[in-house]
TrEMBL record:
The keyword Protein biosynthesis does not apply. This is Acyl carrier protein. Belongs to the acyl carrier protein (ACP) family. GO terms for molecular function: acyl carrier activity. Keywords: Cytoplasm, Fatty acid biosynthesis, Fatty acid metabolism, Lipid biosynthesis, Lipid metabolism, Phosphopantetheine, Phosphoprotein. SUPFAM superfamilies: ACP-like (SSF47336). Pathway: Lipid metabolism; fatty acid biosynthesis.
Amino acid sequence: MSEAEILDRLRQILHDSFGIEPARVVPETHLFEELDLDSIDAVDLAIKLQELTGRRIKPEEFRNVRTVADVIVAVESLLKS
């Protein structure tokens, strides 16, 4: 899965789960500051990403995720493992 495909899937997840307009979801976007996600939303997002990748996300790997680009890197890492 390419970065663009991951970004498209992430846009879809954020729109379906949190009502966030896909146009707002770009790599530089901060999840908590700009998209107003909270810690519970982050857990929900991690679960959705686990479903997307078929792999478990370790909490310590997701703890440092702050931007959409960080999520893309985390998904790429999961897909490679």
